[in-house]
Fold this sequence. Notes:
mainly alpha; 2 strands
Amino acid sequence: SQTRNHKAAKRFFKKALRSFHVSKPRVITVDKNPAYPMAIEELKKEKKMPVGIQIRQVKYLNNIVEQDHRFIKKKVRSMLGLKSFRTATSILSGIEAMHIIKKGQLVLRDKSVQNQVKFIHQLFGLIT
């Protein structure tokens, strides 16, 4: 399909690696779509992705991905859906940010509450 070709995969990986809260991954787990290895190889040739990153293809990736998004589904169901794209973006970003902090995936020099608040303010563009 148009959304699962190698150009779309390449755009997705570029965007994911550009994200400021993501460190360089050791391994990227994807499903068996043949577009992913092609996109990763192109990005490595263009030096937009570190060469040491491994790709792991799992046929039933859906189980792994759905496990991580279970907490979002739990919160959104109780809200009875989201009314607009703008509010959905902010609410989901907030839920994800809190979950990142809770899981200890946020790398801060000092794990103080003030630094966590600063991270959330930067995430939502409240401070520059």
